[in-house]
């Protein structure tokens, strides 16, 4: 040691101590100490221009407290520290990350959104345990190929960057479930995306895409596909084979028509879409000629119904087929048996009836029914016999009726995932709806709600809430933050006089629609920038 001192002229540990002093100035020791116990460190919003060395070395260096405390209690045994698994350094001024990132191999969550990063270090390949990576709202122009080494990644958030391409080998991220590439500069999507067979949500909106690869249909678990605000002129017919697809957003593209395909003489693309079990299809903002605007304005089910009516099958339209397969008994001549047997759908819609006849339920017999459509009738209450299908029905459409209350029978449909109640007279929902533990999408638009029904906050599986065109005057941002699966919230055309800033903390929201409310802020210019910009604006207004 003395020889080293003589050569250097100073204590070699001095630089290390200076480093510690610099670290203490930007990261309180108490925060680091707590992180060693919890395995989680949050340094967001600290105006950092670089990540202090002590953060990268948190699990390597002997902590400061070890030099100060010689009698360790059971809670202060620094050598028993927990490896850092969650690091949040968002909302800072970082322009780069050090290769020392590799010193945190136990990380499962790395959140560095809202910085000024132009690249990611190749050392990111060392984070093999990473499950969630959020690099949104930066200035990334390219992704390092090393990112494809993150085989345990489930959520990858790259929205609002400057990406022009996807690195080769991206398909190796075979555990990926949630991928957001929106608001970049992508002009194409690799055909290799077909290998991303675990992806449930894919957001590629607000890019420069002119087409989608047919291979995208290989994403067999895809439920949510957002292609809004691109340059799409057509979509591949192969999309019709995607049985899991539920939400398809195609707003603001260049779709003039959904074209015919010569290789499929009996298959027209719009009609093939009708075969999908879509729960939400957004087509607004396209110069479409093949579907009348009034049909589009009526919503998803009407569009799909129109498309299905156009399907040609051996020279017979679907309506012809229905006539031939319907039961011929006078009392049941209106029951679509073809739909029951082939589509597993109990359809008694558009009859303008105040009562669903018993014959309709009797016709089910021993068949499995997954979908019920009683829309466009004059129902004042939900038919009690719907409970007979409580163990099999997942989709229920009761829109365009005269319902003023929800009966308990509906609350017993334990497998319900999609519920359409728009265009009724509802102003409340029963607390018993909390038992709908699989509900993912609920449409309450065009009713008489004055607040967001409390019970919705207690259904953690909800992914989509559509409650536009009501009289909703308030939402509870604290309760909404607990809804970790909520990705779409449509509050358009309500009576919201103000938007609580805390709503900006609902960072899982991918689509937040607020147009047509009487609030003054956020202004229209912010709303036009999209959900991420709205949430950021709201977060900035949270009192410190």
TrEMBL record:
Residues 1-20 are annotated as: Disordered. It comes from the Eukaryota. Keywords: Leucine-rich repeat, Repeat. PROSITE patterns: LRR (PS51450). SMART domains: LRR_BAC (SM00364), LRR_SD22 (SM00365), LRR_TYP (SM00369). Residues 8-20 have a biased composition (Basic and acidic residues). InterPro entries: Leu-rich_rpt (IPR001611), Leu-rich_rpt_typical-subtyp (IPR003591), LRR_dom_sf (IPR032675), LRR_domain-containing (IPR050216). PANTHER family: PTHR48051, RAS SUPPRESSOR PROTEIN 1 (PTHR48051:SF1). This is Leucine rich repeat containing 40. It comes from Sus scrofa (Pig). The gene is LRRC40.
């Amino acid at each position: 040691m003395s020889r080293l001192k003589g050569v250097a002229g100073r204590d070699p540990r001095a630089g290390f101590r200076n480093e510690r002093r610099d670290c203490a100035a930007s990261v309180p020791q108490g925060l680091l100490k707590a992180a060693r116990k919890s395995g989680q460190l949050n340094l967001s919003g600290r105006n950092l221009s670089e990540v202090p060395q002590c953060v990268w070395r948190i699990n390597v260096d002997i902590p400061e407290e070890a030099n100060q405390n010689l009698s360790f209690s059971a809670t202060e045994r620094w050598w028993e520290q927990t490896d850092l698994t969650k690091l949040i350094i968002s909302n800072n001024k970082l322009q780069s990350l050090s290769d020392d990132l590799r010193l945190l191999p136990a990380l499962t969550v790395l959140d560095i959104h809202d910085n000024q990063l132009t690249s990611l270090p190749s050392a990111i390949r060392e984070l093999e345990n990473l499950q969630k990576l959020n690099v949104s709202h930066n200035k990334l122009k390219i992704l390092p190929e090393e990112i494809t080494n993150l085989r345990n990644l489930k959520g990858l958030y790259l929205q609002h960057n400057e990406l022009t391409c996807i690195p080769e080998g991206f398909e190796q991220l075979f555990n990926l479930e949630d991928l957001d590439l929106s608001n970049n500069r992508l002009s194409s999507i690799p055909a290799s995306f077909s290998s991303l067979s675990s992806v449930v949500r894919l957001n590629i909106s607000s890019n420069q895409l002119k087409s989608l690869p047919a291979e995208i249909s290989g994403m067999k678990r895809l439920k949510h596909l957002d292609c809004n605000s691109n340059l799409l002129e057509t979509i591949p017919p192969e999309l019709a084979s995607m049985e899991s697809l539920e939400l398809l957003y195609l707003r603001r593209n260049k779709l003039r028509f959904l074209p015919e395909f010569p290789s499929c003489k009996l298959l027209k693309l719009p009609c093939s879409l009708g075969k999908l079990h879509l729960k939400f299809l957004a087509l607004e903002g396209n110069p479409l000629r093949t579907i009348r605007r009034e049909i589009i304005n009526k919503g998803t089910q009407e569009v799909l119904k129109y498309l299905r009516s156009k399907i040609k099958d051996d020279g017979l339209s679907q309506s012809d087929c229905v006539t031939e397969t319907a039961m011929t008994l006078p009392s049941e001549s209106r029951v679509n048996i073809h739909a029951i047997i082939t589509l597993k759908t109990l359809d008694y819609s558009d009859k303008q009836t105040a009562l669903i006849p018993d014959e309709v339920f009797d016709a089910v017999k021993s068949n499995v029914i997954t979908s019920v459509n009683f829309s466009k009738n004059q129902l004042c209450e939900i038919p009690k016999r719907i409970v007979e299908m409580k163990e099999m029905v997942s989709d229920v459409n009761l829109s365009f009726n005269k319902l003023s209350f929800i009966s308990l029978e509906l609350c017993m449909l334990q497998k319900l995932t999609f519920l359409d109640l728009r265009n009724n007279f509802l102003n409340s929902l029963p607390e018993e709806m909390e038992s709908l533990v699989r509900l993912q999408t609920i449409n309450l638009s065009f009713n008489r709600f004055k607040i967001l029904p409390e019970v919705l906050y207690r259904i953690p599986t909800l992914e989509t809430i559509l409650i536009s065109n009501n009289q909703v005057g308030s939402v509870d941002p604290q309760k909404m933050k607990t809804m970790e699966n909520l990705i779409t919230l449509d509050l358009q055309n309500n009576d919201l006089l103000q938007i609580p800033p805390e709503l900006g903390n609902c960072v899982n929201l991918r689509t937040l629609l607020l147009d047509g409310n009487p609030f003054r802020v956020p202004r229209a210019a912010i709303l036009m920038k999209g959900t991420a910009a709205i949430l950021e604006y709201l977060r900035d207004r949270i009192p410190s």
